Amino acid sequence: MTSVQVGKDDGHDGKGVAGLTGTATATAAETAGGPGADQGYHRSLGARQIQMIAIGGAIGTGLFLGAGKGISKAGPSLILAYAIAGVVIFFIMRALGELLMYRPVAGSFSEYAREFISPFAGYATGWTYWLFWVVTGMTEVTAAASYMTYWFDVPQWISALVFTIILYGANLISVKLFGELEFWFSMVKVTAIIGMILICLGILTLGFSDAGDTASVSLLWDDGGFFPKGIGGTLMTLQIVMFAFLAVELVGVTAGESKDPEKTLPKAINTVPWRIAVFYIGALIMILSVVSWTNFKPGVSPFVAAFDEMGLQTGAAIVNFVVLTAALSSCNSGMYSTGRMLRDLALNSQGPKFFTRLTKNGTPLIGTTFSAGLMMIGVWINYQWPGEAFNKIVSFATISGMWAWIMILVSQIRYRAKADRGELPQSTFKAPGAPYTSWFALAFIGMVIVLMGIDKDARISLYVAPFWALILGVSYLLLKRRNPQGAAFLKR
After folding, report:
1. How far apart are CA 437 and CA 94, in angstroms?
2. Tens of pLDDT along 48-102?
3. Quick check: 398 and 246 in contact, CB under 8 A?
4. 57 near 249, Cβ under 8 Å?
């Protein structure tokens, strides 16, 4: 099927092309790139919302908090790490864009892995990406609850519970409300970073604030050079950098609910370079030109630390609000994507059929409810171990998120080969330099995984992965025995 075929609105009457109601299930054949691929979803996300979802996916707590650890490990050379990783992320997003214009579906990476690699790859990708967002939802609602203690003396578990319920309710009302929430969450983050850049630029040129006398671009190389911890220190920050970019691929999950995917998705993907250049590289250059890298510490937001060094005491409260927004944005995205991934798995006979049910507003009711219920485990962890909650549930996020990137790249390589042989229609949004750029991105991800194994702080992610792989393997064998159609779907 070409992108033109799936880009049309089906009338949004709660029925798929095959005439099934929104609460009905579809056969595997109907979801194999056929008319029912995004059956029942309402194309309610406009260009404005898609753009901000794409921007918001690239800006999260990985930047607002994680950059502090990266600066302490690599100094100013962290800027170079973000630049190189940013190029790789662009290659990944263009590979995803090529697939999306071939067939924009709500299942996205899982669908492509199923079609171009194997049924098991689709199964593993769908369940792994679902788990990624469940775990991420737990960590982000935990982070949001901890930020609330800055203003209010409220137990963390109460804030975590309230945030989870509010975001769950918003996701059930309509996809349009999800899009609006994400738009404004992203707007806060973008405004904060641009404001920070302008303040730093003003300090560098006008010399105001406590940092005015020492602020200089030469701080990027004066205190121990640009590589104060050596090239090795820079390399060891790559897993921190890649973690910061997790969720940039979320725009692919919105494909089945975008009003005009042929226009909005390529435009959103093509903005990746300037988003990274401005919000990551630009912000870090400005901060490290105003405040020496030696003043930043792990676990402390570099934005908060910079405001403190400038003597702008209100900045800490502002940044606390921004990182609260970033955490809620990520949890909101988790609520959205988990329901869609479960429904895609169910439509392809790789998950319980009741996950296919939609509300009248086109939202996957049971899938979202099930995922939100699991996220409530994060509330319980906040009740039991408020001081250690974040560290207890964060370990799996990076490796599971990178699995989705690997599946995107391998699927694109295989799709391009088939399209070049004339077996499939060519995409209207080809990835430049592919398949070589995709192979380069795969090699880069492989290097990051090796570095994670070397770093004792990141190694725990690799310990968890084999257990999850074992669960997936055993459950797939059971599926193959009980439901051969689901295990053999799209096998080529």
Report:
1. 10
2. 666 666 666 667 767 777 788 889 999 999 999 999 999 999 999 999 999 989 9
3. yes
4. yes
Confidence check: pLDDT of 193 > 90? no
Q: In 10 A of CB 78, how many CB atoms? A: 28
pLDDT per position as a tens digit, 352-397: 888 988 888 778 889 999 998 888 887 777 667 665 555 555 556 7
In single-letter form, the type of residue at position 122 comes to: G
Neighbours of 206 (CB within 10 A): 10
Averaged pLDDT for residues 29-51 = 52
* Residue length of the chain: 492
Judge whether residue 411 has pLDDT over 90.
Answer: yes
SS3 at position 15: strand
Question: Higher-confidence residue: 307 or 228?
Answer: 228
- Three-state SS at 72: helix
